[in-house]
Amino acid sequence: MSDISEFITNLPKAELHLHIEGSLEPEMMFRLAHRNKINIPFRSVDEVRSAYNFTNLQDFLNIYYAGANVLIEEEDFRDLAVAYFDRAAQDGVTHAEIFFDPQTHTDRGIPFNVVINGLLAGMKEAEEKHSISSKLILCFLRHLDEEEAFKTFRTAEPWFDRIVGVGLDSSEVGHPPSKFARVFAAAGDAGLKRVAHAGEEGPPEYVQQALDILHIDRLDHGNRALENSELTTRLAREAMALTVCPLSNHKLRVVNDLCDHPVDRMLAHGLRATINSDDPAYFGGYIGDNYRAVAKGRNLSREACMTLARNSFLGSFLNDYETMAHLQKLDAFFHKHHEVDL
Ligand code: HPA
Ligand code: ZN
């Protein structure tokens, strides 16, 4: 394991499913609470960590939204992004497409420009410091109504050249993709990419809706698509990338045990599965930990890890030229490792 562990750490990879608010570590939560004079209902970092005892999506989301209350100033959002990229750099991440939830902040009176300017500053710093390229995906909270999503969409319009796409997150069951048909159509008309969380807790029909009604370019999670063989075949035929998050799946009981994780089944079905961390501060690990967890649970080979990393670039929103450059670096890395082993 230690051998593949090091291989995984150094494997060049893209992260495609990361909620930046979910990278808020308890230490930073305390620091920002102090800096911004915000009361939090915890006395220590350990107390925060021990509150992370959720076993489903909604219980997690309640804690996750409460944690975000300490984010007030542009500098806070920049610090949050910089901390994520510093950590991602240690895991061989060379490109990241990160989600942010503007409604979580604008509903608390934090202006949209404060959020996005802070994140963009952190992304710029990561490019300079670590040569990590990145893109932003604006997520709509699906437990709110479509009119609220439209308000956010209109507020974001001046930044459309700095946002690669829109996504859909928060409480899945009871909030089907069809609820957001019009705002996703508007996003498509504006030239933005479209992604959606579907088939995490929700049924395969939600994945179908995400494809047919939202016209997604990438599927977030998608685990439950495997319950429908026609849908699985379709996802493979359309080369739809799935952003799979193993430690999140385990923590939120989408899978009971990492030994049962379907990632290799997905690959065997020809699905373009990728590995990601979702909310690393809450689910117990960053992207390298997620690769290692499934590599151990499913006894994955280096070749399988290589396929997952390759899929991450193929499933990204980089242009063909950029994707090719990343794939060449990945191949060079693999061959170097192979020679060492021969
Ligand atoms: N699912 C849905 N919404 C989310 C998640 C998730 O895993 N993380 C942050 N918002
Ligand atoms: Zn997610």
User: What is the rounded Rg?
Assistant: 19 Å
Quickly count the helices.
17
User: N-to-C terminal Cα separation, in Å?
Assistant: 18 Å
CATH class: Alpha Beta
Question: Tally of extended strands?
Answer: 8
Unreliable runs: none
SSE arrangement, N to C: HEHHHHEHHEHEHEHEHEHHEHHHH
Could you give a quick summary of the protein structure above?
The chain has one domain: Alpha-Beta Barrel (TIM Barrel). It contains 17 helices and eight strands.
List the keywords:
single chain, 342 residues, alpha/beta, TIM Barrel, 8 strands, 52% helix, globular, binds hypoxanthine, binds zinc ion
Structural notes for this entry:
The chain has 17 helices and eight strands. It has an eight-stranded parallel sheet with strand order 1-2-3-4-5-6-7-8. Strand 3, helix 8 and strand 4 form a beta-alpha-beta unit. Helix 5 runs parallel beside helix 7 and helix 16 packs antiparallel against helix 17. The two termini are 18 Å apart. The model has no long low-confidence stretch (mean pLDDT 97). The site of zinc ion (ZN) has 6 residues, from strand 1.
Set down the secondary structure blueprint.
Layout: H1 2-10, E1 13-19, H2 26-35, H3 45-50, H4 57-67, H5 74-90, E2 93-100, H6 102-106, H7 112-130, E3 133-141, H8 146-156, E4 165-169, H9 181-189, E5 193-198, H10 204-212, E6 218-221, H11 229-237, E7 241-244, H12 246-251, H13 263-268, E8 272-275, H14 280-283, H15 287-297, H16 302-314, H17 320-341
Parallel strand pairs: 1-2, 2-3, 3-4, 4-5, 5-6, 6-7, 7-8
The site of zinc ion has 6 residues, from strand 1.
